[in-house]
Design brief:
Layout: H1 3-12, E1 18-20, H2 21-32, H3 36-47, E2 60-63, E3 66-69, H4 71-81, H5 104-130
Antiparallel strand pairs: 1-3, 2-3
Length: about 130
């Protein structure tokens, strides 16, 4: 599931485009557990706008304990969902410098190391509470 596309879809479903964090978490949890169809759909939509970053591109704003979709966010979502946009890819210019991507091999190594560290911490926590 692509989290950023899901956030845009949830926010656009509210009349004023604003959702409290509790409502946003609830709706995202429902969609995240709804099955493979939703995950495939969000990945397909996200592939039409590579480098999507809802905050640095100002597609979503943080307001009073929640998030609100901007008009630019609605336009980007409309573009992603447009039938005529099939096969087209657009690049959004970020307002901040993008974070450099690691090479695939380095990325896999980093993720593997992080998973191993998380498992080790969980084992240590279990051992400490069992004593």
């Amino acid at each position: 599931m692509n989290f950023q596309v899901t956030v845009l879809k949830v926010l656009v479903s509210y009349p004023d485009g604003f959702a409290s964090m509790a409502a946003l978490r609830h709706d995202i949890a429902i969609l995240a557990t709804s099955g493979r169809d939703w995950a495939d759909r969000t990945k397909r939509l996200a592939s039409r706008v590579p480098g999507l970053d809802i905050f640095s591109q100002r597609l979503v704003e943080r307001e009073n304990g929640g998030w609100k979709i901007t008009s630019k966010g609605r336009n980007v979502l409309d573009f992603m969902e447009a039938r005529s946009g099939l096969g087209r890819v657009v690049a959004l210019a970020p307002t901040e410098a993008p974070v450099p991507r690691l090479k695939k091999r380095e990325d896999r190594s980093r993720r593997r190391r992080e998973r191993r560290d998380r498992r080790r911490k969980v084992r240590e926590l279990i051992e400490a509470t069992a004593s």
